[in-house]
TrEMBL record:
Organism from which the protein derives: Emticicia aquatilis
Name recorded for this polypeptide: Hydrolase
Parts forming coiled coils: none
Chain ranges passing through the membrane: 7-27
Gene3D superfamilies attached to this UniProt entry: alpha/beta hydrolase
Gene Ontology molecular function: any one: hydrolase activity
UniProt key word Membrane: yes
Keyword vocabulary terms for this entry: Hydrolase, Membrane, Transmembrane, Transmembrane helix
InterPro entries: AB_hydrolase_1, AB_hydrolase_fold
Keyword hit for Hydrolase: yes
Entries under PANTHER family matching the protein: ALPHA/BETA-HYDROLASES SUPERFAMILY PROTEIN, LIPASE-RELATED
Boundaries of every AB hydrolase-1 domain copy: 68-305
Length: 319
């Protein structure tokens, strides 16, 4: 018995030393917002106060376009995920993109509410402040879920909709990015606010790409550094908890069938996070839609292959 207690004592001491060592090795302090602004804003970047937040956004393209294209990014991303589409479309359209609450330079919601109801209301408040009465709305993943929830709540404000590997229906992922999993682990998720290895971010980005070779160091650096904006790690944990604990509360998927605006659905056939079956479900339920599936692309096809995916967007916008 004494030998057993002695063995257990050494085991727990070893675990404690390992935790302390890993914490010291991977401890990451927040990056000051001023530092991130210097690197991740451009001449087109602006900030506007909405619902208690200083929201980072950009308006690019044709200033005379009365119905802008509004782009909403996914979990863990930022407005930069749309760079390829914006470069291809800005000579033809007015484009508005933003860092959603919890992400990018915008940072956390002071109320810690990250429900779909909050995001839909927030987008309406944001567009109202910009004087936008009607738009074409597009979203990837979380952004796609926000887009159709916004459409359900404010259908008169949307002329067309684009869903890119959008969230919404109950489903089972084939593979989940490690950052998503860590943010849900008891105890460990609290350490995640301070101990954030860059390798976790890299593996998470690689998880949503079909072609891992396209995940560059610069791309990982952007995701990693923006995750270190003050408050973003806690917001990430809060949003994942919101999704796990309240994801089915106030579920409005039954109302998707009522959305009459023309809709383009884009999906990567190698999406392991939100599988193609979900895209097919949107296709079955939306009364006025087109589904385009891209071979050998993952969960963020607009980022992984902007040129190929934006070509179908251009055709859709012309109709």
């Amino acid at each position: 018995m004494k030998l057993l207690f002695k063995t257990l004592k050494y085991f727990f001491v070893f675990i404690l030393i390992a935790i302390v060592g890993l914490t010291a090795l991977y401890w990451k302090s927040d990056i000051p917002l001023s530092t991130l602004k210097e690197k991740y804003t451009t001449a087109d970047s602006k900030f506007i106060e909405v619902d208690g937040m200083s929201v980072h956004y950009r308006i690019e393209g044709l200033a005379t376009d009365s119905i802008p294209l509004v782009l909403l990014h996914g979990t863990g991303a930022s407005l930069h995920t749309w760079d390829g589409w914006v470069n291809a479309l800005k000579t033809e359209r007015k484009i508005i993109r933003l860092d959603l609450p919890a992400y990018g330079l915008t940072g956390p919601n002071p109320t810690s509410d990250y429900s779909q109801e909050f995001y839909a209301t927030f987008i309406n408040d944001f567009l109202t402040k910009l004087g936008v009465k009607q738009c074409i709305i597009a979203g990837n993943s979380l952004g796609g879920s926000i887009a159709w929830n916004f459409a359900v709540k404010y259908p008169e404000k949307i002329s067309k909709m684009i869903l890119v590997d959008a969230g919404g229906y109950t489903m089972k992922s084939k593979s989940v990015p490690i950052a998503f999993r860590v943010a849900g682990w008891p105890v460990v998720k609290n350490l995640f606010k301070y101990v954030t290895p860059r390798s976790i971010v890299q593996k998470s980005v690689e998880n949503v790409y079909a072609d891992k070779s396209k995940v560059s160091d610069d791309l990982v650096d952007r995701y990693f550094e923006l995750s270190l904006r003050e408050g973003n790690r806690q917001a990430f944990i809060d949003r994942m908890s919101e999704f796990r604990n309240k994801g089915i509360i106030n579920d409005k998927t039954a109302k998707i069938k009522d959305l009459a605006m023309p809709t383009l659905i884009i999906w990567g056939d190698k999406d392991l996070l939100i599988p193609l079956e979900v895209g097919e479900k949107f296709h079955a339920d939306l009364p006025n839609d087109t589904l385009v599936v891209f071979k050998n692309l993952g969960h963020t096809p607009m980022e992984e292959d902007a040129e190929k995916t934006v070509a179908v967007v251009k055709e859709f916008l012309k109709k």
